[in-house]
Amino acid sequence: TEESFVVGLIGEGITASLTPPMHEREADHQGLRYIYRPIDLTKLGRPGTDVGALLRAGRDLGFNAFNVTHPCKQLVLAELDEVSDDAARLGAVNTVLIRDGRFIGHNTDFSGFGGALAGGLPDAKLDAVVQLGVGGAGAAVAYALLKAGTGRLTLLDLDPLRAAERAAALSGLFPDREIISGTPADLAAVLPGADGLVHATPVGMHSHPGLAVDLDLLSPSQWVADVVYRPVETELIRGAQARGCSVLDGGRMAVGQAVDAFELITGIRPDAARMLTHFHEL
Ligand code: NAD
Predict the structure, then answer these.
(1) Is 160 a pocket residue for ligand 1 (Cβ < 6 Å)?
(2) Which atom of ligand 1 is nearest to the CA of 254?
(3) What's the CA-to-centroid distance between 209 and ligand 1, angstroms?
(4) If exposure means fewest CB atoms within 10 Å of the residue's CB, which of 149, 190, 198, 247 is most exposed?
(5) Are 249 and 224 in contact (CB under 8 A)?
(6) How close is the Cα of 5 to the center of ligand 1, in Å?
(7) What are the C-alpha distances in Å from 120 to residues 112, 225, 269, 276?
(8) Other Cβ atoms closer than 10 A to 269
């Protein structure tokens, strides 16, 4: 076909994001004409509130879609003509399709984590999960866990109000589940009763090295998922693996959101395993 795709990523400090090369390489394999440009608000000296103006400029220049990231995932909601049910419930959009001049919002952070979990930890029991960190990534992950059937979700954050607000919002959406909130001080009490642990704080990133979890609390029957993907092998992933836990690194989620966005944009289901391989080569 003569169809071609022009896509952009709008966010702060995203010039070195791996999402554009992930999309472009997979598109090459699919035989698509596909250009994906980073549109870095930091470099441009523009605020997140300009996301609407940038979307409209992109529409006028023939862009097919955008991914949006920090600090635009909530701000963009006001600019959209339509929002998927999941993105509306979650209150965050990371993918905007432009169809007939209209902006349609989706969220592939939550679905990408769900796909990562299903692909990377296919046998993981999800009944009782403890999650550390309920910021942007944590909100998507918590939603994905509940969609995947988690019955008891314990949300711990250094900011107890944020954890309580997230738990209340999710309880409204999933009234038949037990959703509890607390602080990291509760970890020792709640982790032994959990099937698995999700880490969704910035601790462990190159810029925030360290561990937010006492590894001695983990038992080999538990699984551990990290959302941090720079580095892909965090201290938590390495330490949990050494204790015999099955693990899911943050690279899987980063690839998962790109897999689902690529499919929304092109209508073609990409080869997720190939995209994961590409990601590790980047
Ligand atoms: P954020 O700032 O929105 O949220 C972080 C949350 O963690 C905050 O609520 C903070 O209070 C809490 N927190 C910080 N230290 C803590 C600790 N020691 N114990 C408990 N809670 C703590 O950040 P974010 O955007 O959610 O990003 C978090 C991490 O997720 C970053 O490393 C980011 O790169 C990563 N991320 C990964 C993906 C992916 O696809 N793999 C996607 C988005 C973000």
Answers:
(1) no
(2) 40
(3) 13
(4) 149
(5) no
(6) 31
(7) 12, 10, 18, 11
(8) 11
Q: How high does pLDDT run on average in the chain?
A: 97
The pLDDT, as a whole number, for residue 170 is 98
| pLDDT at site 162 | 98
pLDDT at 1 over 60: no
The average pLDDT across 53-76 equals 98
- Amino acid present at 210: G
How far apart CA 243 and CA 233 sit, in angstroms, is: 15
Please give the full DSSP string across 103-129, using - where no structure is assigned.
EEEE-HHHHHHHHHHHHHSTT---SEE
Protein residue with least CA distance to atom 35, ligand 1:
228
- ipTM metric: 0.99
What is the arithmetic mean of pLDDT over 31-47? 98
**Within the chain, which residue ranges are assigned CATH 3.40.50.10860?**
4-106+254-281
CA angle (269, 273, 274) in 5-degree steps: 85
Class of domain 110-248: alpha beta
Between the CA of 241 and the centroid of ligand 1 the distance, in Å, is 21
Q: Which residue(s) pair with 9 in the sheet?
A: 38, 67
**Tokens at 13, concatenated:** 């400090």
Spatial CB neighbours of 116, under 8 Å, sequence gap ≥ 6: 225, 248, 252, 253, 255, 256
Active site residue 147: no
Where does the pLDDT of residue 3 fall: very low under 50, low under 70, confident under 90, or very high at 90 and above? confident
In the chain, ranges of CATH 3.40.50.720 domains:
110-248
For the domain bounded by 4-106+254-281, which CATH number is listed? Answer: 3.40.50.10860
With tokens 């046998």, the residue in question is: 123
Nearest-angstrom CA–CA distance, 196 and 125: 8
The conformation of residue 234, written as its DSSP 8-state character, comes to -
